[in-house]
C-alpha cells in the first residue's frame, strides 16, 4: 500500500464506490464521505494526504476547501467539476486546490493526477522532515553550552540572524564556527535557500577565482563549458566563508565587490552577474593584525566585521564540559549502536580537567576513539591518546624568559622567533608558519619585512 490516505467526498454513492475501487487498485488507502460536513468531521482524526471532492453537492466542496485552507492540516485537494463549469474549478485553485478533473470522469486521468498530487505531498513531507532535522540540529537552543561567555555569543547570534547583516565569526579551530553559522542561516529568512560552505584555505590558490566566482566557456584553455561558482550557487541563501583570512588579495577585491555591489565578475564574462547572498565569514586568525601586515584588505575587513562574534575556546568555558561530554558521548553511542557503554569516573575526570587545545572537535574525536577501541562497556583511560595520558605539567609548555631592565625590541623578538622557527624546519615555510600559528602568506610578508635571507 502506498503511503498516505485519500479521502473521496461525493454525494453520488455509486461514483464514490467506483473511485474507491480504482484508487485501491492503484495502491492507495481510501476513505469515503458523502458531503463536505461529514468530510470535515473526520478530517482531524483521518489526516489524509489527499482529498478528492466534488464541487456541486450539499455542503459543497468549495466550503470544504476553504475550511482546509484555513486549518493547520497539510492536505492536498483535487476538485471534481462538471464539464462546462471549469470557471468554478479555477476559483477552487485560487483558494488552494492542487488540480481539478471534469465529469464524466476518465479514471486513468484521475489516477495520473492523484499520482502527481501524492508525489508532491510526499516531497512536501520530506522537506518538512528535513527542516525539522535542521531546526533540531542547528537551532540555537540545541547548541550545547551554558557558560556566561558562550551564552552571550548565542544571544548576539540569535539577534543578528533575522537580518541580512554580514557576520564574522572568530574562534580557534574546532570551536564550532560552522555550526554557529548554520544556526544563523537556519534562523533567518533565507532558511529555505542554500547554505553554501567554502573552506578558503582548502582551495589551491590558482583555483580560488574559478571556484568562487565561476567562469564562462572559453575564458581560458580547457574552459569547455560554463561553470557556476560557489558564490552564485548561494544566490538567495547564505555563503559561509570558512578561514576567510586565507583568501588571496586578488580574490579579496572581487569578494568586496560582491558585498558592496551585489554582483560578481566571472572569469571571461563581459558583464557582471547579479547575486543576492548573505555572507558569514569565519577565521581563527587575527584579521586586524593581517590588515596591519598588508595580507588582508582593510576595506574588506570592515565590510566583514559589521557584526563580529567570538566563540570562546573550550578551556575558557570549562563549566560546559560535563554537559558537552555527556551529549557527545550519547551521540557517538547512538551512531555506533553501543548503548550500554559508560565512562568510568577517572576517565570522566581526565576529560573534564584536560585543556582541549583542539576544542570541541578534538573532544568529539577522542570520545569516538574511546568508544570504538574499548573492549568493555565501561570505558577507561587506557585508550586515551598519548597527549591526554601525559601528566598535566607536560601538556603545556609556556614560553618563558626574563625581560631585561632596559627594555626590549618587539621587532627583534619577532625576527628571532621567525629565524628559529625556519631553522627548526630547515627553511620549510609551510611548517614554520604552522608552528608560529600564522598563514604562510603572513610568514612570507614578515620574512620580507625583516629583510631575512636564506643564510639568516
Automatic annotation (TrEMBL):
Q: Which domain of life is it from?
A: Bacteria
Coiled coil, from the record: none
Database matches in SUPFAM superfamilies: CheY-like (SSF52172), Homeodomain-like (SSF46689), P-loop containing nucleoside triphosphate hydrolases (SSF52540)
Signal peptide: which range, if any? Answer: none
Q: Name one GO biological process term.
A: phosphorelay signal transduction system
| Residues with PTM 4-aspartylphosphate | 54
Cite the Response regulatory domain residue spans from the record.
5-118
Task: Give start and end of each Sigma-54 factor interaction domain.
Answer: 143-372
Q: Name one Pfam family in it.
A: HTH_8
Q: Matching CDD domains, A to Z?
A: AAA
Q: Which GO terms describe its molecular function?
A: ATP binding; sequence-specific DNA binding
Keyword set, alphabetical order = ATP-binding, DNA-binding, Nucleotide-binding, Phosphoprotein, Transcription, Transcription regulation, Two-component regulatory system
From the Swiss-Prot or TrEMBL record, give the protein name.
Response regulator with CheY-like receiver, AAA-type ATPase, and DNA-binding domains
